[in-house]
Specification:
about 130 residues, alpha+beta, Rossmann fold, 3-stranded antiparallel beta sheet, 5 helices, 3 strands
Length: about 130
């Protein structure tokens, strides 16, 4: 599931239904927005109902009968930009210039991501059915 769990009213029900269809040992991979404290104007504009913490995803997985195989955040540099635009400035859109600049320099950010001491803007979680 890529950037969809944050859009549903009952993520636990969605994870539960998906897990019910999985064979033992099967894996569920989800990518969600990370950091409830970052929730702001950009999230609302995108239709997000929430952002997730590691604990949120771990609980959703455990309640559905999944064990956490992996929890990784990424896109650390964007965390500061997201907070500034969405929480501090109340922006409703990311400018074209910002998006183009990011797109042209993603190779650099990918390299630097692991060196930045911030939590990532996104979370990739892998759950395995017991």
């Amino acid at each position: 599931m890529v950037n969809s769990l944050e859009l549903v009213k009952d993520p636990a029900a969605v994870i539960g239904r998906l897990t019910a269809k999985m064979a033992p040992g099967g894996r569920l991979v989800v990518l969600v927005p990370h950091g409830p404290a970052l929730f702001g104007s950009l999230d609302r504009e995108l239709g997000h109902l929430r952002r997730f913490s590691r604990a949120d995803i771990s609980k959703l997985f455990a309640d559905a009968g999944l064990e956490v195989a992996s929890l990784e955040t990424y896109n650390r540099l964007a965390t500061l930009a997201w907070w500034t635009n969405s929480r501090l400035l109340g922006s409703r859109r990311i400018s074209r210039i910002t998006l183009k600049l990011f797109d042209k320099t993603v190779w650099l950010w990918r390299f630097l991501d692991r060196l930045i001491p911030l939590p990532g803007l996104s979370l990739i979680a892998v759950g395995r059915k017991r």
